[in-house]
Write a structure and sequence with these properties.
Length: 188
């Protein structure tokens, strides 16, 4: 039951941030993994390498938020939390703070022209977040545990069609009154 709530909450995080979202248990096993962007195999951090590295650095820590930046400036956020004495980690990312210099990356990692083109395609998909956006995502991630515990079922209010009247914004008179004024003008 708890894991289903954790996965459901992770899905909400993904829908809000549109970033890759990973949930790992205390042993580093993936409980949930939703990837939109895959790091190319020829770049550092591919194959969940960055995710597992960040998990290892966070492992055993109390509820804390972490920020991780890899070799080529991909950013991730990670948050550790406990539910019924079971440790979990949620990680979101990657995102960028600035558009990378693809030429420099291609030269630094000795990429072929095909690899450079693949890198460009991947980098075009990665969000470039402002500092405020990144900070908002971090704050949102820190609320993960309370989101698990809170049910989010809003009350629905439906307007009463019988009591509704349409107003013209300029004079605050109803459409019927406006129609009468038009008829009077035409008679005149």
């Amino acid at each position: 039951m708890e894991q289903s709530k954790i996965i459901s909450t992770a899905m909400k995080i993904h829908h809000v941030t549109n970033l890759n979202t990973y949930v790992l248990d205390g042993n580093g096993e993936f409980l949930y993994q939703h990837e939109i962007i895959s790091v190319p195999t020829f770049m550092p951090g591919s194959g969940n390498e960055d995710i597992l590295y960040l998990f290892e650095k966070m492992k055993g820590e109390e509820e804390k938020l972490y920020s991780y930046i890899n070799h080529w400036n991909l950013h991730y956020f990670g948050y550790t939390f406990f539910v019924k004495n079971e440790g979990y980690t949620i990680i979101i990312g990657p995102y960028l703070e600035t558009q990378p210099n693809l030429y420099s990356l291609s030269r630094e990692y000795y990429l072929s022209s095909i690899q450079s083109e693949n890198l460009k395609v991947v980098c075009d998909k990665i969000y470039v977040l402002t500092e405020e956006q990144a900070s908002s995502f971090a704050s949102f991630l820190q609320q993960f545990k309370s989101m698990i515990e809170q049910e989010t079922t809003p009350r629905t209010i439906i307007s009463d069609q019988n009591k509704r009247s349409i107003y013209v914004k300029s004079d605050n008179i109803t459409m019927d009154e406006e129609a009468e004024l038009v008829k009077v003008r035409y008679k005149t």
